[in-house]
Amino acid sequence: MISFVLTLKRLLTGLFHAFKLKNFQVFFVLIVLLLVSGTIFYTTEENLAVIDALYFCITTLSTVGHPDFMPKTGLGKIFTMIYIVVGTGLFMGMLSYVAYGVVQSNQKDGDIDTERDRFKKKAKHK
Q1: Where are the transmembrane segments (predicted)?
Q2: In this predicted model, what pLDDT tens digit does every residue of 48-74 receive, in sequence order?
């Protein structure tokens, strides 16, 4: 349980650091717009409940996939193909900034030595 709390703290700290980056903010807004538009589309075109449509959108963008739902209409299938190609790239781009934020927050906390720090330590010992 302690490791979960520490991991969650590290993730939230990384998100905090990532939100300071303009590119991350752009990715975040695009992902929110993509989730909203996908949810609206699947509720109207495929007659899914809002929570089911949002769940389908998130599982699709995170590349997990949804085991039970498959679009039934032709328009739904075309939209899903475009949604997967565009959305997965945006989602992975956003996740790369989250990972960058986690690494940066760890470096500021002193958890990770940079290459320069390691080189300086080695030079002092010689």
Answers
A1: 21-42, 78-100
A2: 999 999 999 999 888 887 777 888 999
Is pTM beyond 0.90? Reply is no
Q: What distances in angstroms separate CA 31 from CA 23, 39, 83, 95, 104, one per listed residue?
A: 12, 12, 11, 11, 23
Contact between 97 and 70 (Cβ < 8 Å): no
The candidate with the shortest Cα–Cα distance to 33, out of 5, 56, 57, is 57
Least trusted range by pLDDT, from 38-42, 64-68, 73-77, 82-86: 64-68
Q: How far apart are CA 59 and CA 70, in angstroms?
A: 13
Please state whether 47 falls in left (phi above 0), alpha (psi between -120 and 50) or beta: left
